[in-house]
Write a structure and sequence with these properties.
Number of domains: 2
Organism: Vibrio parahaemolyticus
Shape: elongated
Radius of gyration: 24 Å
Protein name: Transcriptional regulator
Length: 161
């Protein structure tokens, strides 16, 4: 396993590490560990924070950023698909349709709570864009001479859909 991969596993396991802790665990110099940590920080995979100590300079700690956490396997999409397939297998297509309808109903209720507070069509559409953007759809609103166009540039549930 590459040193960088081992470093990421250690940081993931421990939450945050110092160069000294890492060098001890990996059997390398503190300077070597610090160079690896700095490189991962430069890539946006690790972040740095200083912890005050009683005497002397603060101790520098590195921890994973969101990008760092994304380096590890994430199987929630696969799990979702397996749940959908299991519902259909156990309860049939009618059961899956009921589950899907319930989800749609809850989503619609959420949208209505927000949209009922809007007065104009444009403000409703802007609110809908905001809600869809929060859900990961990369939504945007365009207007032309014929009216409004709601564009969604990404489908965050396409694997499950």
């Amino acid at each position: 396993m590459k040193t960088v991969d081992r470093i990421l596993q250690i940081v993931k396991r421990d939450g945050s590490v110092t160069a000294k802790q890492l060098s001890s665990e990996l059997g390398m110099t503190t300077m070597g560990a610090r160079q690896h940590l700095q490189g991962l920080e430069d890539e946006g995979i690790l972040s740095i924070h200083d912890v005050k100590v009683k005497v002397g300079r603060p101790t520098r700690h590195w921890s994973l950023t969101q990008k760092g956490h994304e380096q590890f396997a994430d199987r929630h999409g696969e799990l979702t698909i397996q749940f959908i397939e299991a519902v259909e297998h156990i309860f049939g297509k009618d059961g899956l349709d009921k589950v899907t309808s319930e989800r749609e109903k809850l989503t619609l209720q959420n949208y209505r709570q927000h949209l009922d507070q809007c007065e104009s069509l444009e403000s409703k559409l802007e609110t809908l864009v905001f809600l869809r953007e929060k859900e990961g759809y990369m939504a945007e609103l365009e207007q032309d001479e014929h009216g409004f166009i709601l564009i969604e540039n990404h489908c965050p549930i396409c694997k499950a859909a």
